[in-house]
Specification:
Number of helices: 15
Distance between the termini: 149 Å
CATH class of the largest domain: Alpha Beta
Number of strands: 10
CATH superfamily of the largest domain: Spore Coat Polysaccharide Biosynthesis Protein SpsA, Chain A
Strand content: 5-15%
Structural class: alpha/beta
Number of domains: 2
Largest sheet: 10 strands, mixed
CATH architecture of the largest domain: Alpha-Beta Complex
Mean pLDDT: 88
C-alpha cells in the first residue's frame, strides 16, 4: 500500500519562472505535504526548469523527477509517464504554470472517498495576463451532486480543466485510460473517456480547485498547422468514443456545436491575425483528417454537412453562422455568460437611471427643505400676527369700555344740569 494519500503529476517545459509558484501551492495544502507524492515530468526543457525541479527532489523525498527523451510538443506524454510512475491511490494532474487553492487536495479527497466515486470534479478560476479573474464552474447549473448516470449531458459537456479533477488510479488503469500523445485537447479526450467508463462521479460545482493561468503564449493561443491537425484528431477521437458508447445524438449535437464553434473561432483568428496563410488553412481543412471528422454519423443525422463545405472553401463566417444556427435544448456556460453580460449591461443602465433619480431626488429634497423653512417662517409670522390681533382686539375692547364710560359720565353731567 502506498504511503501517499495522492500523487500530483506536473508536466513541465521551459517554466523556470513559474514552476516554483506551482510547487509552493502544493506544499501549502491543508493536508500534510509529506502525504503527497509530487511527480515532475519534464518534456525536454531548454532552460533551467530541470535544475529547479531536481532541487525540489533533493530537498524532499516525496518529490520525484523524470524527463522525456525528446520534446513531445503537448502535455499528453509527460502526463502518461507521470501516471505510470505514480504510487498514490488517487492522482491529480496539475500544469506547471498553475496553482492549487490551499484546501484543494483535502476537499477532493474527502468527497471522492465519502461518495466512493471514480472521480471528483471541482471548479476553477481562469487568471489572465492582466490579472483579470474569471470563475468557471464545472457545470453550467447546479451545486454539489453525485452522478451515477455518467452519460449525462451536464457531465459530458463540462469544461475539460483537467487540474480541477481527482481520479482513482485503479479505475484509470483498469479501463486503460491514457492521454492521447502529441496533440492538443488530449485532456478533453481523456476526461470524456474517463466519464464514459466511470460508474459514479461527484461534482463540486462551487468548490474552486486551482488557478488556471492563461498566457498569450499558451497552446490555445499558439495556432500552428500542428495545433489545428491535433485539434481535428482530438475531435475525431472524441466522436469515436461517443459512437463506441452509443451516446444519444442530441447530446452529441450539443457537444459538437460547442467544440466546432471553438475550432472555427481559432481558424478565423489564424486568418485575421495572419498567423497562418490561406494556403496553410486550406491544406488543413481539405486534409484526410478533416474529411474523416466530417464523415461522422452525427453530422449526417443533423444534416450539418454545409458547415464542412464552408470550411473547406474558406467561407469561415458562413461556417460560424451555420454552427450558431443549430438549436440545442440545453443551457451551457457560454449561454449563461452571455446572459450574465446582458444582465450586467441592463444593471448598468438601471444604475445610471438610479443615479439620475437620486440626483433629482436630492434636488427635490433641497427644495422641500427650503419650502419647509418658508412654511415655518410664515407660520411664525402668522402666529405673531395672531397674537398682535388678539392684543389689538383686547386693547380695542378696553378702549371701547373707556369710551362708553366717558360717554356715560358726560350724559350724567348733562342730565344733572337740566
Amino acid at each position: 500500500m502506498s504511503e501517499y494519500k495522492l500523487s500530483i503529476i506536473v508536466p513541465t517545459f521551459n517554466l523556470e519562472n513559474k514552476i516554483t509558484n506551482t510547487f509552493n501551492s502544493i506544499k501549502s495544502q491543508t493536508i500534510e505535504f509529506e502525504d503527497i507524492e509530487v511527480i515532475f515530468v519534464d518534456d525536454h526543457s531548454t532552460d533551467n526548469t530541470m535544475k529547479i525541479i531536481e532541487g525540489f527532489s533533493d530537498d524532499w523525498k516525496n518529490v520525484k523527477v523524470f524527463k522525456t527523451y525528446e520534446n513531445s510538443g503537448f502535455a499528453g506524454k509527460p502526463r502518461n509517464v507521470g501516471l505510470e510512475k505514480s504510487t498514490g491511490k488517487y492522482v491529480l494532474f496539475l500544469d506547471g504554470d498553475d496553482q492549487l487553492l490551499v484546501d484543494s487536495c483535502e476537499v477532493l479527497l474527502k468527497n471522492i472517498k465519502s461518495d466512493n466515486c471514480d472521480m471528483a470534479i471541482g471548479a476553477h478560476i481562469n487568471r489572465y495576463d492582466n490579472d483579470v479573474l474569471e470563475h468557471i464552474p464545472a457545470m453550467a447549473l447546479g451545486g454539489n451532486e453525485v452522478f451515477e448516470n455518467t452519460h449525462d449531458l451536464n457531465l459530458l459537456n463540462m469544461t475539460p480543466a483537467i487540474s480541477a479533477k481527482l481520479f482513482k488510479k485503479e479505475f484509470l488503469l483498469k479501463n486503460n485510460i491514457r492521454f492521447v500523445e502529441g496533440i492538443p485537447a488530449q485532456d478533453l479526450v481523456f476526461l470524456e473517456e474517463a466519464l464514459l467508463n466511470s460508474r459514479k462521479v461527484t461534482v463540486l460545482n462551487n468548490q474552486y480547485i486551482y488557478y488556471r493561468n492563461i498566457h498569450k503564449k499558451s497552446v490555445s493561443y499558439n495556432i500552428t498547422e500542428k495545433y489545428l491537425f491535433g485539434m481535428i484528431k482530438a475531435y475525431t477521437a472524441l466522436f469515436n468514443l461517443f459512437e463506441k458508447f452509443k451516446i444519444d445524438y442530441e447530446i452529441q449535437k450539443t457537444i459538437f456545436k460547442r467544440h466546432l464553434g471553438f475550432f472555427t473561432t481559432q481558424i478565423m483568428r489564424a486568418k485575421n491575425l495572419k498567423i497562418l496563410t490561406d494556403e496553410e488553412l486550406e491544406k488543413t481543412l481539405n486534409s484526410q483528417e478533416f474529411s474523416a471528422l466530417s464523415g461522422k454519423s452525427v453530422f449526417d443525422k443533423f444534416q450539418i454537412i454545409q458547415y464542412f463545405e464552408c470550411m473547406r472553401n474558406g467561407r469561415y463566417g458562413d461556417a460560424q453562422k451555420t454552427i450558431r444556427s443549430i438549436n440545442v435544448n440545453e443551457i451551457n456556460y457560454l449561454n449563461l455568460k452571455e446572459e450574465k453580460e446582458n444582465l450586467i449591461n441592463k444593471i448598468d443602465v438601471i444604475n445610471e437611471h438610479n443615479t439620475t433619480l437620486t440626483e433629482q431626488n436630492n434636488i427635490l429634497n433641497n427644495k422641500l427643505v427650503k419650502l419647509q423653512k418658508d412654511i415655518n417662517s410664515i407660520e411664525t409670522k402668522t402666529n405673531d400676527l395672531t397674537k398682535q390681533n388678539r392684543y389689538l382686539k383686547s386693547k380695542n375692547s378696553n378702549l371701547k369700555n373707556e369710551l362708553d364710560e366717558i360717554k356715560s359720565k358726560r350724559l350724567w353731567k348733562l342730565l344733572n344740569r337740566l
